[in-house]
# Entry
Amino acid sequence: MHLPPERRQIGLMFQDFALFPHLSASENVGFGLSGPRAARAARVAELLERVDMAGFGAKYPHELSGGEAQRVALARALAPRPRIMLMDEPFSGLDNRLRDGIRDETLSVLKEEGTAVVLVTHEPDEAMRMADEIALMRAGRIVQQGAPYNIYNNPVDREAAAFFSDINVIHGVVRNMQTDTPFGRFLCPGLTDGTDVEIIIRPQHLKMDFDRGGRGPNPTAQDGTPARGVVERARFMGSESLVEFRMEFDGLRLKATVPAVFLPAPGTPLWLSMRRDRCFVLPCKHHGAAKGELPAAAE
# Structure
């Protein structure tokens, strides 16, 4: 608690890298080092090679690309062998084409060094890709903490679910520990009668099937009761197709995705089924929310 900053063994990577403009790459990396000159030079050379910047030691920050500057900043932060690395959105300024590769390289170097990392990010993909454990914060407080798989599949509330992907929200009211929806009844264990609830499901967990003269697919234990909707819009997104529906039940709007080219014309009737094991039934905190509201990912 009372150590001076230079002895705390904590590294820091800034969002804008914060390299010293008047120092070369090698001088930036060696800035926080102490000890014999030969040992400092060896450590600088080792780290520049490790981050694939061995031939850039004499260059200055203005001569480096964003990805190169990020690598130098990482080497500088690692040079004193910190026990903990604090990273403030260090990849936000990088081009999308470079980001994934540099994130993977950075993670590899940090693991080799045995450095514990606290990474701040607003990017859910980045958190899922890099973290062993995620702490989801809102208004300065941790609202959920755990392994990426557990947080994604067991969100504590609607905002936690929406942070990681688009969601569909169906509103209901508890009656006899269950609630009615277009997709049949859902159990609401532990909730009292009259409680407003939200049934949350991600677009990729809605299953689409063609209308057969008004007869939908046979219900299954996993998918529950199918519900009929009409296509409002369909778009191909590159890796998947996004289809937007207006349901026959109370004008509810839902989105579904499929990992293929699937572009039904507006007005096409389709049946939707939802994976019961992929739904989250949660008490409603948004009493004024419109039915079928589709929130953007929370930050």
In short: The helical segments are 25-29, 37-50, 66-78, 96-113, 124-130, 148-153, 158-164. The longest strand covers residues 227-236. The two ends are 32 Å apart (CA to CA).
